[in-house]
């Protein structure tokens, strides 16, 4: 399975996203089973946030992971902009840890930029890291100018990841963000890597070339889309599913390698950007 290194730790390049999970009590057992299946299939990274269901996703994750050895897991959560201040972040983190039933996070991300000065947020993230309650911190929904601003701060280069939207139908980050992150050895986390199951009109799963490649590899179209996202070795994808079967397929996509010719076919269908694009955000 392909691996990505974050903060010195190697983790499988397909993790588990949890946006929209925990919202429907009738699906709770199914969602818990899906998360546990993902870990059993080899995933280590679970990505969540205090925003997701106003804490309900973290609570679900905490229940799902309770029987699993914490040392096997790489747990990511995120702080909301309105909580990213010196006054509020520590309490926000404590609430997340309580819901997740753990005493530390492997990675704590600033979910997106708000009105709190970036320097204040970074200093508080750094302080929380020194406290041991987070092993590392990073950012999310940062564009190239945000990253450059971050790197100018005294502790800004202590960030260990940036998480942005990225999939075959949304390649804008390839123009500036991904090259900059590679130059600065900052790993990239791709959220919505299969375009939310095509619900946003990208038509990836119904594209003839994607379907043809899936048939040739005897895999699903979503496995092709995931293999494409993690093709270069420094991108971690965090697809979300509440289905055990789909979860197993997602994790198995970490074993799939597309050939240069196959990648070229996909480039023809979904061209790489030739100029700076606005950052896609969901």
Automatic annotation (TrEMBL):
Domain NADP-dependent oxidoreductase: start-end pairs: 13-268
SUPFAM superfamilies documented for this protein: NAD(P)-linked oxidoreductase (SSF51430)
Site (described: Lowers pKa of active site Tyr): 78
Superkingdom of origin: Bacteria
CDD domains attached to this UniProt entry: AKR_YeaE
InterPro entries: AKR, NAD(P)_OxRdtase_dom_sf, NADP_OxRdtase_dom
Residue positions binding substrate: 111
Active-site residues per Swiss-Prot or TrEMBL entry: 52
GO molecular function: oxidoreductase activity
PANTHER family hit by this protein: ALDEHYDE REDUCTASE (PTHR43638:SF3), OXIDOREDUCTASE, ALDO/KETO REDUCTASE FAMILY PROTEIN (PTHR43638)
Name of the featured protein: Aldo/keto reductase
């Amino acid at each position: 399975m392909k691996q990505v290194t974050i903060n010195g730790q190697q983790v499988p390049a397909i993790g588990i996203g949890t946006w929209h999970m925990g919202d429907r009590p009738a699906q709770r057992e199914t969602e818990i089973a899906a998360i546990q299946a993902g870990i059993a299939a080899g995933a280590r990274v679970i990505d969540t946030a205090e925003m997701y269901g106003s804490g309900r996703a973290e609570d679900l994750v905490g229940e799902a992971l309770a029987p699993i050895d914490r040392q096997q897991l790489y747990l990511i959560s995120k702080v909301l902009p309105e909580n990213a201040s010196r006054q509020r972040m520590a309490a926000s983190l404590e609430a997340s840890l309580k819901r997740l039933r753990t005493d530390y996070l492997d990675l704590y991300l600033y979910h997106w930029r708000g009105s709190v000065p970036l320097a204040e947020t970074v200093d508080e993230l750094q302080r929380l890291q020194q406290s041991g309650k987070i092993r590392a911190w990073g950012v999310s929904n940062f564009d190239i100018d945000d990253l450059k601003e971050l790197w100018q701060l005294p502790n800004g280069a202590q960030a260990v990841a940036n998480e942005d939207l990225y999939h075959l139908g949304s390649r804008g980050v390839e123009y500036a963000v991904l090259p900059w992150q590679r130059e600065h050895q900052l790993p990239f986390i791709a959220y919505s890597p299969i375009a939310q199951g095509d619900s946003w009109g990208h038509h990836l799963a119904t594209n003839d070339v994607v379907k043809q490649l899936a048939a040739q590899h005897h895999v699903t179209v979503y496995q092709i889309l995931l293999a494409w996202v993690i093709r270069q070795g420094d991108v971690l994808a965090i697809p979300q599913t509440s289905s055990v079967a789909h979860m197993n397929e997602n994790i198995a996509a970490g074993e799939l390698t597309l050939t240069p010719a196959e990648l070229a076919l996909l480039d023809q269908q979904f061209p790489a950007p030739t100029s700076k694009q606005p950052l896609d955000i969901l």
